[in-house]
Amino acid sequence: MAVKVIVGSQWGDEGKGKITDILAEHSDLVVRYQGGNNAGHTVCVGESTFKLHVIPSGILYDSCCSVIANGVVVDPAAVLQEIEKLHSQGIEVNPNKLKISSIANVILPYHRILDNRQEAKRHAEKIGTTGKGIGPAYTDKVTRVGIRMQDLLKEDVFRKKVAKRDIFSQIPKDSLDLEAMITEYLEYGQKLAPYLIDSSLFVNQAIDAGKNLIMEGAQGTLLDVDHGTYPFVTSSNPISGGACVGAGIGPHKIDQVVGVTKAYLTRVGEGPFTTELHDDKGEFLRERGGEFGTTTGRPRRCGWLDLVILKYAIRVNGLTEICLTKLDVLDGLDEIKVCTHYKTKEGDLLEEFPLDLDVYTQCEPVYETLPGWKEDISQMTDMQELPQNAQDYVDYIANKTGVKISMVSVGTRRRQTIHLIQLKS
Ligand code: GDP
Ligand code: IMO
Ligand code: MG
Description:
Elements: E1 3-8, H1 16-24, E2 29-32, E3 41-45, E4 48-52, E5 65-68, E6 73-74, H2 76-88, E7 98-101, E8 105-106, H3 109-122, H4 134-142, H5 155-165, H6 178-192, E9 196-197, H7 199-208, E10 213-216, H8 241-247, E11 256-262, E12 265-267, H9 280-289, E13 301-303, E14 305-306, H10 307-317, E15 321-325, E16 335-343, E17 349-350, H11 357-362, E18 364-371, H12 388-401, E19 405-409, E20 417-419
The chain binds guanosine-5'-diphosphate, 6-O-phosphoryl inosine monophosphate and magnesium ion (MG).
The site of 6-O-phosphoryl inosine monophosphate (IMO) has 24 residues, from helix 4.
């Protein structure tokens, strides 16, 4: 039995969905512990592509139970839509397979209105949020005026809390029909009632029973509200420590922390990005990697792998292993650059990720250049099959970071994966 946390080690979209799906085959529970439907986790199976936003990526297996835990902000309309979409794609979702924490905070329409109004006011300093209401929903949670899923089951409680929230002190009266919202969300409450549970109790009972669990992180380390490139971050804690708070488990219950790492780097939304490529190499990565947002469709900014960031992610998450994804996207390059250090404006070399965003913004990347490979590696399932330069690239990352690489992903499908450590069945 084991509890594995899966985290993004960069700015999100590392391929967490694919890796979670692979590991879920041997897991009893997959638990989402933070974020909301700002996430977009893609799982490709056969001819089908599943885009999961708030439902955990274990949902494709009948043998696996999916849990949306207390740390997630839940948009009930989005959950119901996702259930419908999965049904239309032949995936059964019912209260035996999906559980939702009764104390998870709810994303309401006014959170989305606030999200968009706040972004509009930021003008040149906008964050580039997904517009899903995530920040305002977490703000209400920490300022103690949030609505929890269980509140949707009691009309009087829900009405009282909405009235206390006094939303029209922040948005114009004509931007929302509050009465219609209350009716709509009470209906969602009725529809989702069979899914609601005490998820911390459920998850801990599963751990005590010796089951295999995955705690599926959304977003990534540099989008963490504490440890990321603040303020260009999301409003939750994607890092592994967030799994304890967001699912209600003790830290000693976690056995492994898997850092999903793209073989290069992408970012969607605003904020500094040292190794960003504005040339044809960046375009090459975007086109070959299909780097367009799963949730918003925005083109992702692309750049070279950054070891300063990866080492930082190893530290703040306590990564025990790395899953390297999208190695196939680098096929065909003459050479591949990897950022090993930053050079500050004053000319100092930095090995550690600077916490002052102004310093980070002004840093120049210091690169090592490695030889590329021309072969198509997307059908290779063994490390020895890979061209020597691709093997060397993987070894280089393991040696530079001192963390073992347990999987190398060379395509979107389950079989397009090289397992360097055998999965237990
Ligand atoms: P997540 O948010 O971390 O789950 O990642 P996304 O699903 O948003 O983005 C990753 C994208 O890369 C998806 O379209 C995946 O299907 C795709 N993908 C994942 N692993 C690989 C890989 O090894 N090679 C290629 N070419 N695509 C991959
Ligand atoms: P997955 O789980 C990449 C980014 C947004 C924006 C910032 C804040 O698919 O990796 P928010 O709507 O959360 O307030 O936006 O965070 N962002 C993501 N970027 N992948 C994600 O999720 C993201 N979720 C949020 O683009 O820059
Ligand atoms: Mg994504």
